[in-house]
Amino acid sequence: MISYRALTKRFGAQRAVESLTLEVARGEVVALLGPNGSGKTTTLKAAAGLVRPTSGEVWLGAPPRPASDPAARLVLSYLPQKVSFPEALTGSEVVEFYRELRGALPERSLAVLRFAALNGAGERTVGTYSGGMVQRLGLAVALLPDAPVFLLDEPTAALDPDGLCAFYGLVERAREDGRTVLFTSHQLGDAERLADRFAVLVGGRLVASLTASELKDRLGERGVMRLRVAERPANLLDAVRAVAPAAVWAGEHRESGRDVELVVPGPAALRPRVLDAVRGLGVEVRGLTAEEGRLDVLYRELVAESETGPHADSERTS
Fold this sequence. Notes:
By secondary structure, this protein is α/β, with parallel strands linked by helices. It folds into two domains: about 220 residues, P-loop containing nucleotide triphosphate hydrolases (Rossmann fold), CATH 3.40.50.300; about 70 residues, Alpha-Beta Plaits. The chain contains eleven helices and 14 strands. The strands form three sheets. The protein has a six-stranded mixed sheet with strand order 6-7-8-3-9-10, with helices on both faces. A four-stranded antiparallel sheet has the order 2-1-4-5, with helices on one face. It starts with a strand and ends with a helix. The C terminus is likely disordered.
């Protein structure tokens, strides 16, 4: 439904996106992640037909059409990063204006206002809305057309709890209906909760594309188990490192009679073997905690890898 084919976009000497190739299938939800200035917004605008590629192509829909083709815009609904509406209009008037613009049925206005949790404020002027309410109004407008493709730029940035519930509902309903969703976010919890796949942009380049399963595996490798043990025999660390080479003691040697903590990074599959090694030496385990790797940690690692990878030198001089 969305196909980026070697997309490159430059603004003068400034590179926004470089040789991006990415496919987003029908019914798939993809989160586009990256630091500020990584090209996420430009990537969405290229699919929305709002910026023209310097080179490469973006295709939308089935059958596919170039994003620059006005007919391609009929298949998408685009929510920009910062939405704004005339402050003198009411929420209902804004929705009605866009409903007529997109040719949606009259009953859609009430439905989207209710779905975006704005039914109680629809007759108030936009000038009285909070930032979260304006963003929720933007969600209502995005929901108006029966479009198979959603392009959502930082949709949760200013949302309050009601707005977040509306956004989660929008994405989940879109997936159930077989629609395609590509959204950007700095809220990594939202990405983890909603996305089927995660595409990471750094410096305009795609540095990773991970399915939910692949992400789970990558995060699992970065899990940590902490063991509180009653003593610290000299051979315990060596025995544990035979199973989990990255294991370390937490802090310096502690006073006799105090529990000590063993930190064991690695996937969950290693943990039973680590416990067997500890108990095999007759050491009493007095406490255990385990946590899986976090997306924000993996994200920083991918960013760091890209900055020291084969393109790093050319990027710094481009």
